[in-house]
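Researcher: Structure prediction, please.
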Amino acid sequence: MSKFSEEVYKIVSKIPKGEVMTYKEVAIAVGKPRAYRAVGNILNKNYDPKIPCHRVIRSDGKIGGYNRGEMKKIEILRKEGCKFN
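Model: Predicted structure follows.
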């Protein structure tokens, strides 16, 4: 695993239940503000339940992708009380 991937997972694992970050915010937190697509690609490959990648959404407020399906992501976020478009 690359250092960048490790940093992305580290940031995302700290997102509290009921809150979200955008892919761009994660990229900025890692120190690579233009790497938001790379963040999405990294999170798409995550199957570790300790890393809540479902809490990362698009900058426009839309849900974005999820490796278990978009509807599952919406379901989980609603159960956690997250607000999104």
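Model: Residues 2 and 14 are 19 Å apart (CA to CA).
Researcher: Thanks, that helps.
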